[in-house]
Specification:
about 300 residues, alpha+beta, D-Maltodextrin-Binding Protein, domain 2, 7-stranded mixed β-sheet, flat, binds adenosine-5'-triphosphate, binds 1-O-pyrophosphono-5-O-phosphono-alpha-D-ribofuranose, binds magnesium ion
């Protein structure tokens, strides 16, 4: 293979991960010129190009050194890691990315009274994830038949070609539509940044490191919320105890109301309605939760 000095990132050409992955890269300061065939996008600012491919091909492209990084579901990455030959370059999950959340689950027909994995012994389970399912069954000492299908796995029990399935679930709507119910979870998945276990020791490796740092900043800001509220001084301890994780809050006086304080807290994650209601019960008023656009400590 010809030596390259530009970094290549593989991502899904068209599917659930495409838009959020492009948005994430844009937030990291990467913009691309769309090429006519749309399989290769040339990076405009930084020397970073995009390969647009089927998501299933992404781990293999990294393992072959065709690209250095890839944005792909953990389900696809882990399946590749379990089924790729020993000679294949080992891959790493470099960062979880917080979108494309779903789970890989066992689902059974409504009438199957599932309580434990041992009940799957001797059953036929249809899946597109034979590696992950096989490992899960082995760990539990369950011997079951694994029927590998490329898609439309949910239909297999109805067709009589399987007794249960192992497939991705998000809302559960597809299972309900096929008279199935979720019985056990094998893997909690989300989109991840995948790469080789050792990044190349050249400009591409340096670029990948730079990108990882930017990504960390983007993820931190994306998940941060600024909480503003007013509290009587006597309730300050109770209110502070209920604040979601983050650095110490800032306290400010409220003009003309010496017994009141304005509190400002940077929270590390979402602030739920339930948390707000609890904080309000402790005495807080005038509460605002604001997204954080940029942060420079
Ligand atoms: N219902 C869902 N909700 C959220 N995320 C999902 C859902 N189904 C799958 N995903 C995640 O999104 C990834 C891509 O899903 P998608 O359905 O777009 O893939 P695909 O049909 O295999 O596409 P491709 O044409 O690239 O092979 C999955 O591997 C999984 O990580
Ligand atoms: O729990 P739910 O919210 O219903 O989502 C789960 C479904 O989503 C995915 O399929 P998708 O809709 O992408 O169809 P495909 O696999 O046939 O492409 C997955 O393979 C499940 O079938
Ligand atoms: Mg696919």
């Amino acid at each position: 293979m010809k030596p390259r000095d530009r970094l290549r990132i593989a991502m899904q050409k068209s599917g659930r991960l495409t838009e959020p992955a492009l948005e994430l890269l844009r937030r990291c300061g990467l913009t691309f010129r769309q090429s006519r065939d749309k399989l290769f996008c040339f990076g405009e600012g930084e020397p970073v190009d995009l390969l647009l491919v089927r998501d299933d091909d992404i781990p293999g492209l990294i393992a072959q050194g065709v690209c250095e990084l890839g944005i792909v579901g953990r389900n696809v990455l882990d399946e590749f890691r379990l089924t790729a030959g020993l000679e294949s370059e080992p891959l790493a999950e470099l960062r979880p990315l917080g979108f494309g959340r779903c789970r890989l689950s066992i689902a059974v027909p409504q009438e199957f009274d599932y309580r434990e994995p041992a009940q799957l012994a001797g059953q036929r389970i249809a899946t597109s994830y034979p590696g992950l399912l096989g490992a899960w069954l082995r760990e539990r000492g369950v011997e079951a038949g694994v029927v590998t299908l490329a898609g439309s796995v949910e239909i297999a029990p109805k067709l009589g070609t399987a007794d249960a399935i192992c497939d991705l679930v998000q809302s559960g709507g597809t299972l309900v539509a096929n008279q199935l119910r979720e019985a056990d979870v094998l893997l909690e998945s989300e989109a991840v940044l995948a790469g080789p276990q050792a990044l190349p020791a050249d400009e591409r490796g340096d670029l990948a490191e730079l990108l990882l740092k930017r990504l960390d900043g983007v993820i931190q800001v994306r998940e941060s919320r600024l909480l503003l509220l007013q509290t009587p001084r006597h309730a300050l301890d109770a209110v502070t105890r209920l604040l979601p994780g983050g650095p110490q809050p800032t306290l400010l006086p409220v003009a003309g109301q010496p017994d009141q304080l304005m509190l400002q807290a940077l929270c590390a994650g979402e602030v739920s309605w339930r948390q707000l209601e609890e904080i309000k019960k402790a005495g807080a008023r005038e509460m605002f939760v604001l997204p954080v656009e940029k942060m420079l400590a």
